[in-house]
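User: Sequence in, structure out. Go.
Assistant: Echoing your sequence, followed by the structure tokens.
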Amino acid sequence: MISLTRYQWTVLLAAWLGWGFDVFDAFLFNYVAPNCVPTLLGLEIGSPAAKQATLYWTGLLTSLLLLGWAAGGVLFGMVADRIGRTRTLMLTMLLYALGTAACAAAPTIGVLAFFRIVASLGIGGEWAAGASMVAEVVPEEKRVEAGALLYTAAPLGLFLATFVNHQVAAVWLAGSPEHSWRIVFLFGLVPAAVAFVVRMFVKEPERWKAVREKLPPAGMRDLFGPDMRGITIRGTLMAVVALIAWWSCNAFIPAIASGLAQGSAQASGLDRAATLALVESWKTHATIWFNLGGLIGTLLTVPVAKHLGRKPMFGIYFAMSAAAIYAAFGMDWPPEVRLYLYFFIGLSVFGVFGSFTFYLPELFPTRLRGTGSGFCYNIGRVVASAGPFVVGAIAARGVDHALQAISYVALVPLAGLLLVPFITETRGRALAD
């Protein structure tokens, strides 16, 4: 157990809820896409045309989400350095909650895309505020543990999204896939209530207030001054590698699981109702294994980072990511086995993100912490946004093409290994003011 005061636990819980619901809202679309996309396009759910359209639009809308996420992350990172971490956390939670819930009323896929972009601005902005707040409130010697614990909200947010989608689509409205996705989106409103609780119990970090009174607000140009340029570029490159791998794999879990299940159901001669049930079951199982691996991988960043350092940690996780991606998608396995192999993708591709919540805040002084962390973690999404679009365009030709396309993503963390020797090592360093 981490030794923290009651208030420090309250701050960690507030940021943990903000990030967990951030991920929850971000990925609701991926779960409902096999039902949502065909409905809005007037296609029969489960038909070949619907499968093709779902893969294509999943890639396109995920790429748009990443662009909005990047814009929101950079924008609200600067806002967090100006108006405070707590205020920014509340504002971003409200924005992504309302944007996600509005998707439930979308009459066309174009309107749905617009609401997803609105939500993505808040989704991107929440991370920098929450990570900076935790780093500045917890004791120096507990920063790594608190940062990794903060990121455990991500797999649990995905667990929650999986549960909500399964409960609505497979239990409550099992016979109405054309309508169930709208109810799933309405659950995106839940974080709005949490945002008001955050505002009531959490105050601005004393560290930020002290620096804010002495120094003027930081600007984007400060990240590229002579003393910060190299740090900013290296931090961004680490995030770019991790983000491309993560989004290219995770964005298509429901679509690939659905395609594998539909192929298996067709080979077994199952009727429509049994096929729909199998689809929801396989989507749930694939996501659970991915999230379980992610949760364990996130927690393992603590001992690796503390005992070996940040450079070896990134090297280990990138090597594991390349191996896991190729093994799961590039090798020949029965469809059911691929569901379990998502555990190892989660352990590596997902798990490495447990480090960014403590590593990126360590790179920047207090007046630049929100701006710098938000920039490094989110600007990489502009580059990463190409991944889901390209994979989705290829995957639209069929599940086999999707598997082959994602297998090539293993080259990304392999390339990341070449960058590891050049990154900034922060092991044993105190936060700079």
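User: And one key feature?
Assistant: Residues 22 and 384 are 19 Å apart (CA to CA).
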